[in-house]
């Protein structure tokens, strides 16, 4: 048995100062001296004026002291830190394929998904940026838009109620070839890459159309494999 050497605690002032650590130590001392859990519990109740620890707790503290020389809880090893080698593997993967999802990387690298996510955020300081979906533009689109804007400004100047006659409309397109899900489409990087995907509007699709004016809302209407402009 490990030798027990605890200095005299006098009036047990150290118990009040150190709380549980000192109370555990004094319980081990009393139990070691008396070989009786009941006697130890009685002394504890008299000294602390409160309910004593259980029989199992006192015996566990003694066993812990005999094995480790301390009544303190040993710090667990905790979750192992991700090795630099794995950090480098993750960095290489997303440098090569910045659009790769964290779940895909986890499968490819045989690592937990949470490890991939934590390394990207906390070790590599990368962020996930949404890809912008924009309409494909042609060379003559900009001059036509500029001409249109000038015409509208002229009409607004001539008629103050001109905009009240307008209907503003938009349509949400679902392509047969597969729509782009912006929530799942991410690019990992330390800076916003300002990346975008062109959307080919002439591919087979289903459209949901709606319009609004100064006074009312029209729609929504559904159109299969065509757009509202085709009518």
Mean pLDDT: 76
- Counting structural domains, the number is 3
Main β-sheet, in a few words? 3 strands, antiparallel
- What is the gyration radius calculated from CA atoms? 37 Å
Structural class: alpha+beta
**Beta strand count:** 7
Separation of the first and last Cα atoms: 95 Å
The general outline is: elongated
List SSEs in N-to-C order.
HHHHHHHEEHEEEEE
Contiguous low-pLDDT stretches (5 residues minimum) are 1-19, 180-184
Give the DSSP E fraction (strand runs of 2 or more residues): 15-25%
Helical fraction: 40-55%
Description:
By secondary structure, this protein is α+β, with helices and mostly antiparallel strands. The chain has 3 domains: 58 residues; 42 residues; 84 residues, no CATH class. The protein contains 8 helices and 7 strands, in the order αααααααββαβββββ. The longest helix has 18 residues.
Secondary-structure topology with pairs:
Elements (H helix, E strand, L loop, with lengths): L12 H6 L1 H15 L2 H12 L6 H14 L15 H13 L5 H8 L3 H11 L3 E4 L1 E4 L5 H18 L9 E8 L10 E4 L6 E4 L5 E8 L4 E8 L7
Parallel strand pairs: 2-5
Antiparallel strand pairs: 1-4, 3-6, 6-7
Q: What labels would you give this structure?
A:
231 residues; alpha+beta; 3 domains; three-stranded antiparallel sheet; two-stranded antiparallel ribbon; 8 helices; 42% helix; disordered N terminus
């Amino acid at each position: 048995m490990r030798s027990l050497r605890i200095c005299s605690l006098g009036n047990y002032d150290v118990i009040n100062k150190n709380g549980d650590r000192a109370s555990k130590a004094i319980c081990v001392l009393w139990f070691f001296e008396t070989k009786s859990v009941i006697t130890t519990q009685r002394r504890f109740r008299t000294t602390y004026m409160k309910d004593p620890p259980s029989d199992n707790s006192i015996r566990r503290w003694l066993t812990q002291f005999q094995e480790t020389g301390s009544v303190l809880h040993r710090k667990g090893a905790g979750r192992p830190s991700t090795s630099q080698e794995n950090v480098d593997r993750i960095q290489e993967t997303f440098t090569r394929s910045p659009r790769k999802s964290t779940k895909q990387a986890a499968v490819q690298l045989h690592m937990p998904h949470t490890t991939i996510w934590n390394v990207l955020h906390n070790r590599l300081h990368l962020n996930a940026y949404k890809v912008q979906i924009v309409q494909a533009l042609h060379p003559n689109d900009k001059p036509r838009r500029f001409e249109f804007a000038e015409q509208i400004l002229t009409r607004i100047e001539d008629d103050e109620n001109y905009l009240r006659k307008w209907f503003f409309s938009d349509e949400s397109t679902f392509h047969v070839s597969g729509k782009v899900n912006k929530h799942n489409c991410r690019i990992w990087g330390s800076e916003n890459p300002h990346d975008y995907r062109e959307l080919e509007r002439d591919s087979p699709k289903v459209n949901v159309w709606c319009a609004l004016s100064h006074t009312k809302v029209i729609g929504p209407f559904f159109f299969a494999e065509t757009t509202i402009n085709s009518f």
